[in-house]
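QA checklist item 7 of 12: single-chain prediction sanity check.
[x] sequence parsed
[x] length recorded as 199
[x] structure emitted
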Amino acid sequence: MALKTFVKINGVNNLSDARYCAGMNVNLMGFSVDPNSDGYISPEKYDEITSWISGVEFVGELGEFMGNNISSLASDYGVSYIESSNLNVLKSIGTPLKKILKVDIVNIDKSDFEDIDLIIVNKDTDDITPEEIATIKKVAAYNKVLIGYGVTVDNLDSLLEETNAYGIAISAGSEIRPGYKDYDELADILEALEIDEWA
């Protein structure tokens, strides 16, 4: 099986999510490498989780972190991508790391996307308006855009079609207890994206 669009999973913090999402053939898996974040994953925990999975690239999610040791953070984790909501931070990072800018829909027209590999369009609320769909479509005409909010099973296909987005970015969750996870929302979206490669 494969997924019919590009998928990034945000905020992975447990092996259950990581193995499930890898099994569903997501493209990117994000881990918070910001020591000030509630969802922070240490390099040791990161290694513990990622050593069990393959076939997916990993993202170091910086959030608002602006420390001086960003390059060493990336090497500590061995990620392929760095994600930040701060454009200047991303522009200060050299190759070979790929860059993901997480930008609020209200600020998207003010952003410079040069040298940015992926853009996650985000918002504080889950509703997505026709005006925002039009804005995403405009940006997606020239950039690889992932829709990071307002995605449901019911509107998934129409959103992708109307915006021409490159894909989606959806959040993982925490385990209820070790090894036990409620996958309802995450699973519903990923299963709705499944296609049979051999059909």
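[x] summary fact logged: Strands lie at 2-3, 6-10, 28-32, 57-61, 81-84, 98-104, 118-122, 145-147, 167-171, 194-195.
[ ] second reviewer sign-off
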